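Supplementary Methods. Inverse-folding protocol.

Structures were first reduced to a C-alpha cell string of length 426. This string, shown here, constituted the complete conditioning input.
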C-alpha cells in the first residue's frame, strides 16, 4: 500500500506524521551509529574490490566475495543468476512490504593511471564508474538492515548485478528468472555522481536524455558533399540546443548553480543535441550516420519518420535505400509516486543541504536499471562522490575518476534508512 498525498495531509493534520518523523529520525540516528562501526571494514572491502576489478561477464571473484559476505550475514543467497549475478534475501521479523536494492559490480577497460594508492592490480582494467563503491554500499546496507532484522517488517532483496557496462546484466538476470526468485513491490538503486560527497539527487520520470543513433543508406551514385550538407541541414533543423558550443561544452555546465541540472532554470529540460555525424561508404552503399540526445520520448519516435519524409521530398529520393535506428543509452524512469515518497522520507532524516532535486535530464549517461523498472516501480538515485578540497572528482568514466570514501558511509546511512522506512511504514 502506498501513501497518497491526501493521506499525508491527513497525517500532518492529526500529528501522526510528526510522530512518524521523530521515529524516522531515531531510526536514522541508530543506523548512523551502526554504520560508523562498520565503516572501516567497508573501506577495506571497497579497496580490495578496487584492486581486483573485473570486466563485464567476468565478475567471478567479486560475486564470490559478495555471496560469501551475504551468507555470513545469515541471508538466503542465490548465485549465478544471469551470469555472475547474486541475490541475497533478508526476511524481517514481521511480514510487510518487499523492497529490492540493486548494486552493480563490473569495471571498465582503461589505461589511464589510477590516482589512488590502492591501485588496480589488473592491468588495463579499473573501477572508473564507481561500481566497487556501489557493491560496497550494497553490502553495507545488507549489514545494517540485518542488524534491524527483528524490527524489520517485510523482506529486503539485494541484487548484485554483473555486466552493467554492456547493458546486458539486468536483462540477463531477469531472463534467468530473477523475478521468479524474488517478488519485490519496489526497487531502488544508486549511481555515484559528480556532486559533493553525500549529495543525493534524483527526480521523477526520466533521469537522462534518450540517446539514439541513425543510419541512413544511399546508393553510392550520390555526390558525397551534397548529401552530407543536406543531411546535416536536416538534422540541425531539429536542434534545440540549450547553449552554443559543442556537446562537451554543454555537459560541462551540468553542475552550474544557475543553469545546471539542480537549478529550476536549468538548460537541461528540453533539448535535441546532435552528438556527431559521419559519412562513409563501402562498395555498394553510402552511409550517413548520426547520433543525438533528445529529452522527449515522443520526438525520438517521430524524428526518423520525418527525416525519411524530407529525404523522399529531396533530390536524394532515388538514391535513398533505407533508414535504421538504434537505441544506445537507456534512461531510468523513476516512478513519480515513489519518488515523492522517497523525497519526503529522506528529507525527514537527511541533511537538508545534501539533498537536491534534479530539474533536467543529463545527456551522456545511461543505465540498465530501467529494465527492472519496466517490471517493478522504483527510483534510481545519484549519490555525489567528489571532494574538491582533496582534488577528488567522481564524474563517471572520466580518466581521473575517484570517490571520497566517506561517500560509502553516507550511502549506507541514507539508503538503509530509506529501505527500513519503506518496509515498516505502511
Ligand atoms: Zn556505472
Amino acid at each position: 500500500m502506498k501513501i497518497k498525498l491526501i493521506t499525508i495531509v491527513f497525517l500532518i493534520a492529526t500529528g501522526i506524521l510528526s510522530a512518524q518523523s521523530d521515529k524516522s529520525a531515531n531510526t536514522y540516528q541508530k543506523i548512523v551509529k551502526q554504520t560508523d562501526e562498520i565503516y572501516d571494514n567497508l573501506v577495506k572491502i571497497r579497496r580490495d574490490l578496487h584492486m581486483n576489478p573485473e570486466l563485464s561477464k567476468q565478475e567471478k571473484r567479486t560475486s564470490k566475495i559478495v555471496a560469501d559476505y551475504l551468507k555470513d550475514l545469515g541471508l538466503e543467497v542465490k548465485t549465478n543468476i544471469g551470469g555472475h549475478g547474486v541475490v541475497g534475501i533478508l526476511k524481517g521479523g514481521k511480514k510487510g512490504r518487499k523492497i529490492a536494492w540493486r548494486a552493480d559490480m563490473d569495471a571498465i577497460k582503461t589505461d589511464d593511471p589510477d590516482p589512488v594508492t590502492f591501485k588496480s592490480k589488473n592491468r588495463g582494467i579499473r573501477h572508473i564508474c564507481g561500481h566497487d563503491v556501489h557493491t560496497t554500499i550494497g553490502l553495507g546496507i545488507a549489514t545494517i538492515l540485518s542488524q534491524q532484522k527483528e524490527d524489520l517488517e517485510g523482506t529486503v532483496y539485494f541484487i548484485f548485478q554483473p555486466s552493467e557496462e554492456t547493458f546486458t546484466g539486468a536483462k540477463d538476470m531477469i531472463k534467468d528468472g530473477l523475478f521468479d526468485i524474488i517478488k519485490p513491490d519496489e526497487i531502488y538503486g544508486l549511481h555515484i555522481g559528480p556532486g559533493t560527497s553525500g549529495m543525493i539527487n534524483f527526480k521523477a520520470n526520466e533521469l537522462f536524455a534518450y540517446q539514439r543513433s541513425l543510419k541512413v543508406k544511399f546508393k553510392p551514385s550520390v555526390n558525397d558533399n551534397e548529401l552530407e550538407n543536406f543531411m546535416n541541414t536536416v538534422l540541425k533543423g531539429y536542434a534545440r540546443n540549450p547553449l552554443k558550443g559543442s556537446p562537451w561544452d554543454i555537459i560541462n555546465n551540468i553542475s552550474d548553480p544557475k543553469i545546471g541540472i539542480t537549478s529550476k532554470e536549468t538548460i537541461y529540460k528540453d533539448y535535441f543535441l546532435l552528438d556527431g555525424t559521419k559519412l562513409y561508404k563501402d562498395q555498394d552503399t553510402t552511409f550517413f550516420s548520426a547520433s543525438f540526445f533528445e529529452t522527449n520520448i515522443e520526438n525520438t519516435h517521430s524524428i526518423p519518420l520525418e527525416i525519411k519524409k524530407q529525404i523522399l521530398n529531396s533530390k536524394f529520393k532515388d538514391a535513398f535505400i533505407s533508414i535504421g535506428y538504434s537505441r544506445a543509452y537507456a534512461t531510468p524512469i523513476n516512478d513519480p509516486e515513489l519518488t515523492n515518497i522517497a523525497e519526503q522520507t529522506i528529507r525527514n532524516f537527511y541533511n537538508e543541504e545534501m539533498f537536491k532535486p534534479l530539474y533536467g535530464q543529463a545527456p551522456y549517461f545511461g543505465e540498465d536499471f530501467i529494465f527492472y523498472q519496466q517490471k517493478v516501480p522504483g527510483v534510481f538515485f545519484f549519490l555525489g562522490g567528489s571532494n574538491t578540497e582533496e582534488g577528488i572528482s567522481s564524474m563517471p568514466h572520466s580518466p581521473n575518476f575517484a570517490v571520497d570514501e566517506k561517500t560509502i558511509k553516507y550511502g549506507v546511512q541514507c539508503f538503509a534508512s530509506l529501505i527500513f522506512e519503506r518496509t515498516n511504514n505502511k
